[in-house]
Specification:
The protein contains twelve helices and 16 strands. With about 400 residues, the protein is an alpha+beta fold.
């Protein structure tokens, strides 16, 4: 009798567990799932859902932005994707034009665009991750990690906010690289050791936007972690945020992905020609991250909610830097910082090999505008502001209050 009761209660417990598990909703395709290992080795999952406005709330806005897309596609040869989020909720997402002009293959939500200089914010965040892990400090010099680096007293912070005064590695690669295959980060670091290029000014003296600084940062990340930059970004950012369509690509070293776009230029006003890779395209850190608009929204939401780095680190990324003389500069870490009409704007644009990109945050309006394009569109800044105005005018005002 005791055994029967024992088995009965065991069966009931098993049945209860089954229904509890069955009733627990799994993360949707739009969820950002973060796994955190606590001190007691318990793994906790954080889920950041990409919520969406309803169709009725966005009907007017959708009509306006769809019309805008059709217009710029026809008049300005725009072939790209747009995403808008308000108060942390997806308000609009669409794309127009071709992914492949020869095959007449249209763009989709899964098309991955080269982010160009928008890639820099990922490099900066990776540095802050390592700082929080006590694997490096912002006042460390480059020579701590690369003793033969020819430019002395340049700190990681100088690299982050473009006050290092480094020469342009594009020029070095184009004039001093003698091999056929494009140089990787390590090869470029070695080339700088013997380069004839000189620095522009002493570290910290002034602001000078520098792609070189961000490729050096990526090289430091590789040195500290003993991992390729692509692997560290994937394991520390892309995988935790379920940015499954995003990746780092090094020309001539990595295979081309199925969703990876090529940049184009318009020839004689009608023909689209592919833009081939160059001697500068194997270097990563300053560019060469590919992503979709939805993956980028996951990135911004998770970044702002503290899923990747602490608020203290994020504040540094979102705050204007200074020269050593105390003069403010329009750049934080991986983001440009602007203030217009007493409104702070956190943004970055990119342009490379036919790709034109932009991520802009308007904190006071709790608005994010993401634009990705791949046929040399030249008016990202204008389009960004136009989209912002349309959102504020046409998204149901009763629904957008925080």
């Amino acid at each position: 009798m005791k055994n029967i009761i024992k088995y009965f209660f065991g069966f009931c417990l098993l049945l209860f567990s089954f229904f509890m598990l069955k009733g627990t909703p799994a993360a949707s395709l739009n969820d950002v799932v973060i796994k955190e290992e606590k001190k007691d080795s318990v793994v906790e999952e954080k889920v950041f859902r990409i919520e969406r406005f309803s169709r009725s709330e966005t009907a007017k806005l959708k009509h306006k932005l769809d019309s805008l897309l059709k217009r710029i596609n026809k008049r300005n040869d725009f072939h790209g994707s747009i995403l808008v989020a308000k108060n942390g909720k997806l308000a609009y997402q669409n794309q127009i034009g071709f992914a492949d002009f020869q095959k007449k293959k249209p763009l989709t939500e899964n098309s991955a665009f080269q982010l160009a200089s928008v890639s820099k914010q990922f490099t900066a965040a990776a540095i802050m991750i390592l700082k929080e892990r006590n694997q490096l400090q912002l006042n460390d010099t480059v020579t701590k990690y690369f003793p033969n680096f020819p430019f002395k007293q340049i700190t990681i912070k100088n690299l982050l906010n473009h006050t290092a005064g480094l020469p342009k590695y594009f020029w070095v690669a184009e004039h001093e690289w003698e091999k056929e295959k494009a140089p990787t980060n390590l090869e470029m670091m070695q080339l700088l050791e013997t380069s004839l290029a000189t620095k522009y000014f002493s570290p910290g003296r002034r602001f000078d936007y520098s792609n070189t600084g961000y490729f050096v940062l990526a090289s430091i990340i590789e040195k500290v972690t003993d991992l390729p930059f692509a692997n560290f970004i994937k394991s520390s950012i892309f995988d935790p945020l379920q940015m499954s369509k995003s990746f780092v690509y090094s020309f001539e070293n990595d295979s081309i992905r199925s969703n990876q776009l090529t940049g184009y230029r318009l020839y004689k006003g009608w023909r689209h020609l592919k833009i081939n890779g160059t001697v500068n395209d194997a270097v990563v850190g300053d560019k060469n991250i590919y992503a979709t608009t939805e993956d980028l929204l996951k990135w911004i939401l998770a970044l702002n909610q503290g899923a990747i780095i602490s608020k203290e680190s994020l504040d540094l990324m979102y705050t204007k830097g200074e020269t050593k003389y105390g003069k403010k500069i329009p750049y934080g870490f991986g983001f440009r910082i602007d203030e217009k009409n007493d409104q702070k704007i956190i943004y970055h644009y990119g342009k490379w090999n036919g790709f034109s990109t932009g991520i802009t945050q308007y904190p006071e309006d709790d608005l994010v505008v993401i634009i990705l394009e791949h046929t040399s569109y030249s008016a990202i800044s204008y389009l960004d502001k136009k989209i912002k105005d349309l959102v504020l005018e046409n998204l149901n005002s009763n629904q957008i209050k925080p």
